[in-house]
Design brief:
It is a single chain. This protein is mainly α and 227 residues long. α5 runs antiparallel to α8, α6 packs antiparallel against α7 and α6 packs parallel to α8. It is globular. The protein has one domain. The protein has 8 helices and no strands.
């Protein structure tokens, strides 16, 4: 178990050091996410008004699209340098490699959300500070479920020619329950009369999805990545 966490932390450190030098993934995904939010803001807000649940939906749409782009760019870099094959050939547990890749993706998406949440709150007048801990829990649980499946599929498709097309085709149908739970839970605390018990229900459901997705990904990562 100790070696598992040591390998995972080494993989995270490697990914963060590469990203800190290039800023390729965070810059492209941040620009894309900001563009998505701004386009929807100008398209859906009329005289300072919008439908009740639009802020929650836009937040999760931008997060999902930018997360997909981040997954593709991160593993494209792994393919070009052939570092993923080197990691798989290393004398380390493959589930630990997956855990490290997942943690690195979660950190990148977390940085993205730090920018997205205030922007959505500003443009859509969303009460992001009404229940901050509930919002953080929803984002953390939803992002974990999304990234858990995305990391597995992105690693599987790293050598496929049509990986950019196949990744969203495989990823979105499976993560639809996560996105729905995230949107409904966020909408529950963004509405004029916040529904805290409903938000807690969606948080609990997201945690359940996280446990299922992460467990299945850890279990299947080694056989699906075996040549």
């Amino acid at each position: 178990m100790k070696s598992f966490f040591r390998v995972a932390l080494l993989v995270v450190r490697k990914d963060l050091m590469v990203e800190a030098r290039s800023l390729e993934v965070i810059s492209t995904t941040l620009f894309f996410a900001l563009t998505v939010v701004l386009v929807f803001a100008f398209g859906l807000v009329r005289e300072g008004r919008h439908s009740d649940d639009v802020a929650a939906a836009i937040l999760w749409i931008a997060t999902a699209f930018a997360g997909t782009l981040a997954l593709g760019r991160t593993f494209e870099r792994e393919r070009q340098a052939d570092t993923l094959r080197a990691l798989l050939l290393a004398p380390a547990d493959r589930p630990a490699i997956y855990a490290g890749k997942l943690l690195g993706m979660l950190l990148l998406m977390g940085l993205l959300e730090v920018v997205l949440v205030p922007l959505v709150g500003l443009l859509f007048q969303a009460p992001i500070f009404a229940y901050p801990w509930h919002l953080m829990a929803l984002l953390a649980a939803g992002t974990t479920g999304f990234a858990a499946v995305g990391t597995l599929f992105a690693a599987m498709l790293v050598r496929a020619r049509s990986r950019d097309v196949l990744l969203p085709i495989l990823l979105y149908p499976i993560t639809v329950p996560v996105m729905i739970a995230g949107v409904r839970g966020t909408a529950a605390i963004f509405q004029s009369t916040p529904d805290e018990p409903l938000a807690r229900f969606w948080i609990a459901l997201l945690v359940f999805f996280d446990v299922v997705f992460v467990t299945l990904a850890l279990w299947t990562f080694e056989p699906v990545m075996t040549d």
